[in-house]
Amino acid sequence: MELIFFYLVALVAVTSGFLVITCQNPVNSAISLVMTFFCLAVFYVMLHAPFMAAVQILVYAGAIMVLILFVIMLLNLGAESKRRYAHNVVGGAAAGVVVLLIGSFIVLRGQVTGLVGDITPQVIEQVGHTELIGQTLFTRYLLPFEITSILLLVAIVGAIVLAKKEV
Predict the structure, then answer these.
(1) pTM
(2) Cα(7)–Cα(53) distance, rounded to whole angstroms?
(3) What is the pLDDT of residue 167?
(4) Half-sphere exposure of residue 125: CA atoms within 13 angstroms, side-chain side
């Protein structure tokens, strides 16, 4: 039963991911991306990582998608998408197939290193997912976390500057 559910969610995730890149309207593409994020959250739940599923829904399907929709509406990209552009579909498909084949080769020919980290399933069970992620994020990865927030702020300011007609 779990395998059937996995395949069903995987089919929805792949279909919505395909719709992200094929939709003509950017708003429809963004809504398809939200569905892809929800499917990823379901995968996290299936992997027994409920905190990551909640973060996936709150941060990506919520906050980031609101930001993306805000930028789409602010820049009025709907008018741009109505124009016809000549895309090299065959070249893009060929590049996608090459990346898929290389990735498959690496996965099938690769070996597991056998390295074991400090955090074992017993430590996760004793301390909890949330506390371990918080400790790691705000100690070891504090600088990348802050750089990411500054990068998002710069993107918002850049979108507003680009959207202004008169400076």
Answers:
(1) 0.60
(2) 18
(3) 52
(4) 3
Residue 97 lies in a domain: no
- Structural domains of the chain, count: 2
Per 3-state DSSP, the chain is made up of helix, strand and coil in percentages (nearest 5) of 80, 0, 20
Q: Is-contact 5 38, C-beta < 8 A?
A: no
Q: Is-contact 73 160, C-beta < 8 A?
A: no
With respect to residue 96, please indicate whether it lies within any of the assigned structural domains.
no
Residue 89 resides in a domain: no
Exposure b/e, 87-110, CB count within 10 A at least 16 = b = eeeeeeeeeeeeeeeeeeeeeeee
Same domain? For 68 and 5 the reply is: yes
pLDDT tens, residue by residue, 63-116: 888 878 777 777 765 555 455 544 666 777 788 899 989 988 888 887 766 667
Boundary-marking domain end, from 81, 108, 125: 81
Distance CA 14, CA 148 (A): 28
Whole domain around residue 142: which residue ranges?
Answer: 116-167
Q: Is 88 within the bounds of a domain?
A: no
Question: Side chain identity at 21, as an amino acid letter?
Answer: I
At a CB cut-off of 8 Å and minimum separation 6, what does 147 contact? none
